[in-house]
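in:
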């Protein structure tokens, strides 16, 4: 033993130990490669499942009315001819597609910009791209898109089931009822008003005339922009290097602008007689609730 300590191992023992070390290191290297391969495969499977789920949810939203009417036929909503809440004139919408574009595209653009700035700030002399850099962006986008489709599905379900008449119902529908195709003008001098459920609208009356509750525009606007405001708040708690996130006044200004756009776009739906005020309130609450629920799920992953 003293000889081995002073002069080292004999050549044949050195060869045996080197061989064992090589086997151990090769085994560890193989385990690491297998773990990395499994991790990469699992990430790909998770990405594929997320895409399939979002595509299935989008298909449900697109085909909702066709199949929901068969499951829950519902009853047509009637009216009284003296209902002043349905007597408003039809006004062309001033913010229609813009609400959809802002509520969908603005959060996605902000997600990309913030994650790019975070990645750029972490780079030194070499620019390296890893999956860990993409994960926060991917996580935010998948939860945001899922919530966007979820609130659309809830909106369509409420519209198809409740069938509330819009404030400009009389202006667009011009309903006739009874065997003689009477109109509301025939009941003007009556003291007892009948509740009409069996009526016929004028040709080419849009189906949206009986889908007032709840406001899809309000739900969409509040979902997208409340989600964005909460996302900015969440990122400011995590990231201390980006000035526009750590500056509380600048961040608060961005959050205020988000809420202002959601409020104005929803307010116009009432002013332009496309929704009752309660439709807009319900839509804003649903959109905000879905945004809060999804941002909490995104935070925990």
């Amino acid at each position: 033993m003293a000889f081995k300590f002073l002069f080292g191992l004999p050549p044949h023992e050195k060869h045996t130990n080197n061989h064992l070390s090589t086997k151990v290191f090769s085994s560890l290297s193989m385990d690491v490669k297998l773990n990395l391969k499994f991790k990469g495969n699992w990430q790909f499977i998770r990405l594929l499942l997320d895409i399939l789920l979002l595509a299935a949810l989008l298909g449900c939203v697109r085909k909702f009315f066709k199949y929901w009417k068969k499951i829950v036929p519902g009853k047509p909503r009637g009216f009284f001819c003296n209902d002043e809440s349905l007597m408003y004139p039809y006004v062309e919408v001033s913010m229609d597609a813009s609400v959809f574009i802002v509520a969908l595209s603005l959060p996605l653009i902000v997600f990309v910009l913030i994650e790019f700035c975070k990645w750029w700030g972490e780079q030194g002399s070499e620019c390296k791209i890893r999956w860990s850099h993409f994960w926060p962006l991917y996580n935010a986008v998948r939860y945001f898109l899922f919530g966007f489709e979820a609130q659309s599905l809830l909106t369509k379900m409420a519209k198809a089931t409740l069938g509330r008449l819009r404030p400009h119902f009389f202006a667009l529908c011009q309903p006739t009822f009874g065997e003689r195709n009477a109109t509301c003008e025939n009941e003007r001098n009556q003291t007892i008003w009948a509740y009409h459920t069996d009526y016929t609208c004028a040709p080419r009356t849009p189906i949206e005339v009986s889908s007032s509750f709840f406001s899809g525009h309000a739900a969409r606007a509040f979902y997208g922009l409340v989600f964005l405001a909460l996302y900015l708040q969440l990122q400011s708690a995590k990231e201390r290097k980006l000035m526009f996130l750590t500056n509380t006044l600048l961040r608060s200004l961005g959050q205020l602008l988000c809420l202002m756009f959601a409020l104005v776009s929803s307010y116009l739906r009432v002013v332009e007689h496309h929704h009752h005020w309660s439709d807009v309130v319900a839509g804003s609450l649903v959109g905000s609730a879905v945004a809060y629920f999804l941002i909490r799920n995104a935070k925990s992953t």
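note: DSSP finds ten helices and four strands in the chain.
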